[in-house]
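Moderator note: this is an archived Q&A kept for reference. The question asked for a predicted structure of one protein chain; the sequence and the answer are reproduced below.
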Amino acid sequence: MIQDIEPHVFHNEYRPEAKANENSFVLCFDGKKILAKKEERGLVFPTKSMLLEDTPLVYAFAVDETEYFLDLSGKVIDIEGFEYLDLMEARRGCSNVDGMILFTGTHLHQWYMESKFCGSCATPTVHSDYERAMKCPNCGKNIYPRLMPAVIVGVTNGDKLLVTQYRAGKFYALIAGFAEIGETLEQTVAREVFEETGVHVKNIRYYKSQPWGIVKDLLVGFYCDLDGDDTIRVDHNELHSAEWRDRKDIVLQPDNFSLTNEMLTMFKEGKI
């Protein structure tokens, strides 16, 4: 999965003392596109020396000893040899390390762009001196990076798995959805499966979690078993299709980034 970057280590703690030097890598965004170039060794990002001298930068994270900063200017820039790549396109064929940089960088950049003003009193915010938070100097409210819990669900029916295709998706997937206020994750599993397919489930069990920063999610994977009638009633507002598939007939996704693909693989290989 995307977070499996061993032997490299991802350092996400905020370091207010970190300052970019001329060779520091900078993540520059234009909406959901990132400024980079693809080489055989992977994605290459611009350095501070390539940007305007007064470009506002903030420390993002580090991979091993390599630090990454965010360009908070909001400006689209032109650097020879680099181009703004669509995030989903950029992730294809890149390493898990590059994927973590893309997804987590996107998550943080969107949060900074969305947290310029206090949501309670509309005062311009300032960065906290000691933690990754934007603070309102008027009412004192702290704004932290948003994490949205969502479930990924593998529903089993003997040697069959409930697979789906989203309305806008090209690949096979699993039931998924966000936790609602007042719900446990297990209740989210049962609700989402029933809402999208009309199927009831039992024996809900945790599998694994995954950060998915490109949409601010923390994905939580569960397997569960069919409870009763296996008739599928597809919610076409959410899904293009849903069906029971034998292990041998499950079609995997084209890369190993996602928790969804790992869960599909585990079932296909008879490990679940």
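Archived answer notes: The mean pLDDT is 93.
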